[in-house]
Specification:
homopentamer; 6 strands
């Protein structure tokens, strides 16, 4: 898993039932020094808001299981809001 | 998923039935500052044109499910046209 | 697999039974010159502590099998504590 | 998929029936400006020669299906020779 | 697949039967100019020694099949010793 910071969301029509009423969040990857670099688009499972630090599961089979699905087109999913992350020298949350 | 911008297409004979009449688009990956870097070749599922900002699913099992297949040689697929993407400071679309 | 150094842990509520009582460790990837760059969040299977050098398996199916699961949302897992790693010029552990 | 340029081949004895009489080609990844960076070793399926621009499928399940296999140790395969690739400003082929 | 050079090995107790009597080798990835950058930890299948140039299969399902397993926690495996690799301008082996 990776830690990210929600920076925004994406509006796009995806013609596949799974995505109905799902929110697609833009998550910037958090570096261990507290900066961010790169991003992924993750399906939200926990009601994360912009600016929140989140845990991102980035593997298709894991992502499907978080939604209780055997099949489904998902790869990255926000699985938790980070209460605290201790990077040794940098603390987040 | 990733956000990309369609920059062109690839013409190649692939000797496998799945690819008959499928379009292969070159998609430049969009950075959060609005620039692009790197690219992937994705199968188009939504009729995307050059210059359009798109959502790219880049996982084999997900890609297959978007086409309703159990098996098939696909990894990346354009799954939606991006109406708006809010990267915090940069807005696209 | 990769070699990492445990730098800390993450506190996050993940609403899925697998994660109950599992520890999520922040592991900095070890370079062959002894420095670190980048990190992953791995589920601990061996009781690793901060500062320890560990082996990280980073593939979903492998990770599940280390926990004896057919399904489950895991990708990266700490599978062993490194007693010695010989990088040719640099020795760790 | 990715676009690559075949730069050479690898001679190695692999003790597994699948690799008997298969050619392993070194493919440099093509950047959108026409330069190359990085490479992968791909199993040839189309009779590609050194210097040719090719399409590379880099996912295990897809690679297996191109060879009509349910199982087999393959990840990257050359699936087509590129007749033309339009990167917007750079044209290849 | 990738080409690597074996630079050393890792000593770690992994509490899982598959790893009993398996050797874990540190393999530096070979660049096309003959330099190396980055590494992976691969399970040895061919008796490779330090300094040898090897072919590394880095995909879980492929790795398992090289060992004749349906399941098992492996991702990267040394599948062959490279007799010769022709990178166009640089020759290895």
């Amino acid at each position: 898993m990776k830690i990210g910071v929600v920076s925004g969301n994406v509006v796009s029509t995806i013609n596949f039932p799974f995505f109905d009423s799902k929110k697609l969040m833009i998550c910037d990857y958090l570096n261990s020094d507290g900066s961010t670099s790169g991003y992924t688009i993750a399906v939200d499972r926990v009601g994360a808001g912009v600016g929140e630090t989140v845990l991102i599961m980035d593997e298709g089979n894991s992502a499907r299981q978080m939604f209780g699905l055997d099949t489904g087109p998902i790869r990255a999913v926000i699985v938790g809001i980070v209460d605290a992350a201790d990077f040794g020298e940098t603390e987040v949350g």
